[in-house]
Amino acid sequence: MTPKKSHLHRRPPGVWKTQPIGLRGWRERWADRTNERQQRAYDAALEAWHQPDTKLRRLRAAASEFRGSADAAAGLALEFFPDEAVFTVLPAAELIEAEGRHIAGLPQPERAVLPTPNGTLNPVLADGLHVIDAGMVVVTNRAVVFVGHDGLREWTYARLSGLAHDRRAPFTLIHTVDEQRLSGLLLPPAAADGFRFHVTLAFAAAIGERAAVVAQLDQVIAAHQHARPSPPVMLTSDQAPLTAIVTAGSLAMVAGVTAAISAIANFHAPGEPDQPRSAVTGPAIAGAGSGCTAATAPATASAAAGPAPGSGSAHAALPSQASATSGKRIPTASGRGPGPRLDRRP
């Protein structure tokens, strides 16, 4: 009678020739880990991309639809014309003037409505500029009005030839057509981008060039769309490299070898007193002037010296707000409110 074969010896022909025992699991684990890592990196990049995209689209909507607000004029110590609408109000700013009309290094007029590229502005002035007053700034659909402690300064759009926004410092120069001394405004860094957008939009709308501002933003949004991160390509277990093999058996072997080495290193013969390793003597470390080698002396000195002085000191003090080019310190607004209501009407 022929003996019955056990089911333990049955296997489909050729299975272990293409998939040896244990290989299928590590390949799948490698694919899962790699895909997870790529997905996390993609999610972070997409979130970083969405932030400027959202801001650009809000600016585009405002450039197309915003016409100012008449209600924003309520409560301000300033008289307004009946058809005047307020675009923005800055409660604290500083009036600046240039020593001459043609100074090298100053920004040139442009129709810029975009946020600062690096997102930060250094609150310093360039050479040839100085602060002469502090107060409040109101941007309307007719003019830019500065209400300071020493009086009122107004730039009507009909008299402007352009606006020049500095890309490194939060000041804007206002160019006029009548060759007067060049002046402008030094702004709080956090408020500079919003002010620049509103004053450029108000000026462009007043001279009939609002569509040019909208077109500029459309171009920037289209370019930003091309920079959108692409989703990662999901990997399969068949793409796992052989270098990714880490089996449980190999880990156990490494752990066993490590334990054996540690046991040998700490072994002492029965009855032998424990001695620190540093107590081993020999010609190379016998003492000063008795064969101390050049390699041993620095190591011993370094171990006895301890941590370097100042290694645990506090953070370095922040540099003062001095100009990168001139070293001047910028005075800040005093914070006093404007005086009585000022009448701008002739």
Question: Overview of this structure, please?
Answer:
This protein is of the alpha+beta class. Helix 2 packs antiparallel against helix 4 and helix 3 crosses helix 4 (210-226). The model is unreliable at 5-19 and 275-337 (pLDDT under 50). It is built from six helices and seven strands, in the order ααβββββββαααα. The protein is elongated, with a radius of gyration of 37 Å.
What's the short story on this structure?
The protein is α+β, with helices and mostly antiparallel strands and 346 residues long. It has helices spanning 15-18, 23-65, 192-206, 210-226, 248-265, 296-305; strands at residues 86-98, 129-140, 143-148, 151-156, 160-165, 171-176, 183-186. Residues 5-19 and 275-337 have low confidence and may be disordered.
Keywords:
alpha+beta, 346 residues, 7 strands, 7-stranded antiparallel β-sheet, 15% strand
Which structural class is indicated by helix and strand composition? alpha+beta
Total number of strands = 7
Bulk shape? elongated
Percent helix: 25-40%
| Average residue-wise pLDDT | 74
- The number of helical segments is 6
Q: What's the main sheet like?
A: 7 strands, antiparallel
H/E element sequence: HHEEEEEEEHHHH
The unreliable regions are 5-19, 275-337
Separation, N- and C-terminal Cα atoms = 125 Å
Q: How much strand?
A: 15-25%
Strand order of the largest sheet: 4-3-2-1-7-6-5
- Return Rg in Å: 37 Å
